[in-house]
Amino acid sequence: MFERIKTALVLVAIVLSCMFATASHYPMLILMAVAATIAGYEWYKLMPVQNPSTRPMFTWGYTFLALMVAVIALYYHDIQLIFWTASILVWLLSVYWVKNFPKYDAWYNKSLNIIGLVLISAAITAIFSVWESSPWWLMYLFLLVWGADSGAYFVGRKLGRRKMAPNVSPNKSVEGLMGGISLTVIIVLAVQHYYLDLTLPQHFLFLALSMITVLGSVQGDLFESMIKRRAGVKDSGHILPGHGGVLDRIDSLLAAAPIFATGLYLLKMMGVDL
């Protein structure tokens, strides 16, 4: 437990320093590049094995490719919305995959290599885009994800009865999901009351975006759990002592970040001043 807490504190310190310590873009860009590299490495390690003898070479090749795609997407802002939209479509499709696992697992094929590039690049660029809007909006995104996860954990532990996806993540319950949503609603209402000056329809739009983001974070967690279960591993990696891999830490953000970034973009297009 001490090792887990120590790792978490170090991670929080690094992320917050990159977010708030300077107005320069470079610390966040470097952090995003590192995250994309490690996430790409871990993602490919979870993919179906075609030829074990060549796997190490292809793993490093895929890792480099994941970094290059993420860097290109970070540099060319015009294509970011394409990545976010493609990512959201994948997350919608993954609901069917999770619901029908393990009876249906045809999704576990070579196409996951391309899907991984899309999901990782979409999440990295979305996180960076939200940070560019304001570091506080990125903090808000983190609060939504952490609030949903914490509320689900504590409520599910005490009151959890009905399993949400027993074949994918047996510990997650419907009651836990409701607890996570309830906690995030409190967070959203507090932010709206103290920090946002919006009309009533705009408040409902912002609340809807926040709740969809929360549901996306839950799906991101379930999808990564399903891939790990199909691949026969407990953690995506071992780089973070007590926490597993980078994908284990950002699985919820893989889905939540593109949804939230797309929502902010659409609200801005509608004239909502956040």
Write structural notes for this entry.
With 274 residues, this protein is mainly α. It has helices spanning 2-20, 26-45, 55-75, 80-99, 111-133, 135-159, 174-195, 200-231, 246-269; strands at 163-165, 169-173. The chain has a two-stranded antiparallel ribbon with strand order 1-2. It is globular. The relative contact order is 0.14. The model has no long low-confidence stretch (mean pLDDT 93).
What are the defining features of this structure?
274 residues; mainly alpha; two-stranded antiparallel sheet; 9 helices; 2 strands
How many structurally independent domains? 1
Largest sheet: 2 strands, antiparallel
CA radius of gyration is 18 Å
Q: Could you tell me the strand content as a percent range?
A: under 5%
Low-confidence stretches: none
Strand tally is: 2
Distance between the termini: 39 Å
Proportion in helices: over 70%
- Helix tally equals 9
* Gross geometry: globular
Could you spell the SSE succession in H and E letters?
HHHHHHEEHHH
Strand order of the largest sheet: 1-2
Q: Helices and strands: which structural class?
A: mainly alpha
Average pLDDT score? 93
